[in-house]
Specification:
The chain is 38% helix and 14% strand. The chain has a 7-stranded mixed β-sheet, with helices on both faces. The radius of gyration is 21 Å and the shape is globular. The termini are far apart. Bound molecules: pyridoxal-5'-phosphate (PLP).
């Protein structure tokens, strides 16, 4: 357009760049291993519930607090239903939390590196962001609480992103006990891990545990996430949320997914097994691979040139995620797919890095 434009935005918005979501390629032929979606379809119960959903219901507003699904989620963890809030994906929850607890005087503290949405949400809120470096093995530093300084919120993904490792539960409990603000534990990948921190909510009023149906329940496109916390925290978050932040279809299908426990467990078991197979395979080719409790591996090729590996895979129509930067630039993040997809990736990788002798 040719008319002259002078920005109307708050200076903070002009100064920041927005979040960059992982690419969603249009080509069906691509092997898409870049955004940690499930390789399996949503459960048969979800597909049935969708087919049977009466479109006439869409003329009504949804239940503003998603009571049915929240009650089901709470009882699954033996918590009172006042301890749950539902969101339009867990990104919605993260956004609510930053807006409730952070502003120009109340910074957020996050690990460096971490889920790249956190600092974007902080900028949007005009809140400072204290970055706490992880160590060489992507573990939390001993003095994390001191380093968090005057932050009012500390956000920790567990299992971690983008490295996929976990942090000791006891260490997490210690951090939650000694930090004087809110600790948000982002459990987007907890269903792939050996334990979780949901029970902290029972003992500690400053802990929020955020979760999602996007990864382990194959519902990234539906947008459903939730959080557990003390009822007073939940009540405060409720004030901030959009009145109707979860559509009636999302509420209905999330509930259907929850009822298909066996299917869910089966998908998770398959993904964990494929993860262990690929882990061993990549180690064997000389990769450095971080031990993962998530549905992805963070892996560095033998020559450390992850960018080249990323591009070479792409030429073969395999998309993984590459994060440039000092801490991440030697790694790619590979979402775990089906066993067949993993062997496709592995065969390509072996062609690139395998020694010919080894194959004899
Ligand atoms: C994928 C992801 C989320 C959120 O996903 P939603 O689709 O918004 O529920 C949150 N945190 C981390 C660390 C993630 O990787």
């Amino acid at each position: 357009m040719s008319m002259e434009y002078v920005s109307y935005f708050r200076p903070g918005i002009d100064a920041m760049s927005g979040y960059t979501p992982g690419e969603q390629p249009k080509l069906e032929s691509m092997l898409k291993l870049n955004t940690n979606e499930s390789p399996y379809p949503p459960s048969p119960g979800v597909q049935r519930a969708m087919a049977e959903f009466d479109a006439a219901r869409l003329r009504f507003y949804p239940d503003p607090v998603a009571s049915d699904i929240c009650t089901a989620l709470a009882s699954g963890f033996h918590l009172p239903s006042g301890c749950v809030i539902a969101g339009n994906g867990s990104d919605d929850i993260l956004n609510l939390v930053i807006r409730c607890f952070c502003d120009s005087e109340r910074p957020v503290a996050i690990p460096d590196v971490t889920y790249s949405l956190y600092p974007v949400l902080a900028s949007l809120q005009g809140a400072g962001c204290i970055r706490i470096p992880l160590d060489e093995d992507f573990q939390l530093p001993e003095d994390i609480v001191e380093r968090a300084g005057n932050a009012n919120l500390l956000m920790i993904p567990r299992p971690s992103a983008p490295a996929g490792n976990s942090f000791l539960r006891e260490r997490m409990a210690e951090i939650c006990r000694s930090f004087r603000g809110i600790v948000l534990i982002d459990e987007a990948y907890a269903d792939f891990a050996s334990d979780n921190c949901v029970d902290f909510v029972r003992e500690m009023p400053n802990v929020i545990v955020a979760r999602t149906f996007s990864k382990s329940r194959s519902l990234a496109g539906l947008r459903f996430g939730y959080a557990f916390a003390h009822p007073a925290i939940i009540a405060g978050l409720m004030k901030m949320k959009d009145s109707y932040n979860v559509s009636s279809l999302a509420q209905h299908l999330a509930l259907a997914s929850l009822r298909d426990e066996a299917y869910f467990q089966d998908c998770i078991a398959k993904i964990k097994l494929a993860r262990e197979m690929l882990f061993l395979g990549l180690l064997d080719l000389g990769f450095r691979v971080i031990e993962s409790e998530a549905n992805f591996l963070f892996a560095s090729p033998p020559d450390g040139d992850a960018e080249r590996y990323f591009h070479r895979l792409r030429e073969k129509h395999v998309i993984v995620r590459y994060f440039p930067g000092a801490r991440t630039g030697k790694f790619v993040r590979i979402s775990i797919g089906t066993p067949r997809q993993m062997s496709e990736l592995f065969i390509l990788t072996r062609q690139m890095y395998g020694s010919p002798l080894r194959d004899l």
